[in-house]
Amino acid sequence: xxxxxxxxxxxxxxxxxxxxxxxxxxxxxxxxxxxxxxxxxxxxxxxxxxxxxxxxxxxxxxxxxxxxxxxxxxxxxxxxxxxxxxxxxxxxxxxxxxxxxxxxxxxxxxxxxxxxxxxxxxxxxxxxxxxxxxxxxxxxxxxxxxxxxxxxxxxxxxxxxxxxxxxxxxxxxxxxxxxxxxxxxxxxxxxxxxxxxxxxxxxxxxxxxxxxxxxxxxxxxxxxxxxxxxxxxxxxxxxxxxxxxxxxxxxxxxxxx
Length: 257
Prior knowledge:
Layout: H1 2-16, H2 21-28, H3 32-35, E1 40-45, H4 51-57, E2 69-71, E3 74-84, E4 87-95, H5 101-119, H6 125-132, H7 136-139, H8 162-168, E5 176-183, E6 189-195, H9 207-235
Antiparallel strand pairs: 1-4, 2-3, 3-4, 5-6
C-alpha cells in the first residue's frame, strides 16, 4: 500500500512541477479504460462516481489537481477538465494497491476473529461493521448495503453480485454467514461477513411489502404519459423528414404527417 501511495505522490509532484497530467496518465495510470485517453473519463454525474472520488471531483476548479484520493480501486489524483451543471469531466491517474498472499491471509484472520466476536455476542454485527469494515461505502451505515438504483436496501436477484448471491441463497433471514472470499470492483481481494436482514419469496406485489416498487412504477408510468403528451404537442410544430424506407414503419408517435 505504501509503495502505491508513494508512486501516486511522486506523479502528483511531477504534475505540480509542470509535466502534463494527460501524458503521465497515458504512461502510468492503471485504469486501462481511461489511460489511453489521457486519463479523461468524460462527463459524469455524482452517482456515477464512487463517493470519495465524487466529493473531490466536484470541488475542484478547472485545471486544478487534487490531493491523493483513496477509493476501493486504489489511489487517484484528479484534474478537472470542465464542469457543466451537475456533471463533471475529469482526468485521473489510478495506481492500484497490490495485495499479496500474506496480506490476504491477514484479512482472513481478522475476519475470522470478528466472526468469533459475533458468535459470542460480545458486539453486534452493526457495531463491528463500524469498527472493522474496509468498505467505506457501507461502514458508516453499519454495514447496510444500499441499492444505488432505488436508494433502498432491497435488491432483486439480478441486481446482486453472483458471488454474494451464491452465499445468501443458502441463508435464512437474520442469519450471519462465516467469512467468505471477496473481490472488489477494483480487484482488491479480501473477506466479507454477510448478514441477511430480510428475504422474500416470489409473490404478488402489495402496498405493505412492495410500496417503493409500486411507487416507482406509478411514477414511471406518469412520466411516460406526460412525455408522450409533450411529444405529441411538439410534432405538429416540428419539421420532420423521413427517408422513404422508414415511412412504412410503425411509430409509437405520429411522426408521419
